[in-house]
Amino acid sequence: MPAQEHPISTAQPSLRERRRATATQEILDAAERHITEHGPAALSLRAVARSLGMTVQALYHYFPSRDALVTALVTKGYDDLADAVQTAVDTAPANSPVPRLVIAAEGYRRWAIAHPERFQLLYGTPLRDYTAPTEGPTTQATRRMSAIFEREMFGAYTEAQLAAADAPTLSPSLHTYLNQLPHYGEGHLPPPATALLMSAWGHLHGLVVLEVFGHTSFLGDHQAELFRLAMENLLTDIHRRIPPA
To answer: What is the rounded distance in angstroms from the CA atom of residue 25 to the CA atom of residue 66?
Structure first.
């Protein structure tokens, strides 16, 4: 049918919707400040409401429970972290000698160091009595992060190459399980590549956790250089395991 018969809606949010969006953002900002000052475990709806000059009952109009607020905070944290990683890749010079995967990893590290309490909310000790909703917004946000690293690590290879990767021998049951996992990048990721990706993720994330929680402070100003060397070595090892086209 002609396009004019199906006009695109240009309706603007109502005043009430705009006010609600503004209030919701103010609550999230206040909750993030509270986490930064007191840590994730001390998150208190009463304290957040008090800092905004509102009652807890009024806050419940926007977040009906503590879990709803935590879910929103975790989702926003993952989205902000993914934005930082993607921005690092997008703003890197086209002729940079540093591999894009390493640039992405460094964007991840910088965000974690700049926001240690929010990083702890995402990857630290789970909050007591909180369970993220199954297939909810937090799951979608983590999948976005996974897709970025999968693309930068394996984007130059075909599925056949990745299927033939020299990964550690997988048991039949693990091979079947990995083959059935959903993937969030482009195309299907064969089990050997999934195993390599998970191993790389553990290495990358482990180094960042050690630094954020102060366990590598004895390295001083050399931490960034050593992290880059570790990521470059990791990427070299993974790519040498993938046969040429």
So the answer is: 16
pLDDT tens string 202-220: 999 999 999 999 999 999 9
The domains located in the chain, with CATH, are 13-64 (1.10.10.60), 74-240 (1.10.357.10)
Q: Residue 83's CB: how many other CB atoms inside 10 A?
A: 13
Which three-class secondary structure state does DSSP give residue 99?
A: coil
CA distance 68 to 181: 27
73-to-45, 68, 189, 210 alpha-carbon distances in Å: 13, 9, 30, 23
Q: pLDDT > 70: what percent of the chain? A: 94
* Cα gap 66→235, rounded to integer Å: 41
Burial class (CB in 10 A: 0-12, 13-18, 19+), 171: exposed
Checking if the pLDDT of 4 tops 60, the result is no
List phi, psi (to 5°) of 8.
Answer: -75, 130
Say if residue 24 is exposed, middle or buried (CB neighbours under 10 Å; 0-12, 13-18, 19+). Answer: middle
Q: CA-CA distance, 90 to 96, in Å (whole number)? A: 12
Amino acid found at 123: Y
Q: What three-state secondary structure class fits 120?
A: helix
Question: Which three-class secondary structure state does DSSP give residue 222?
Answer: helix
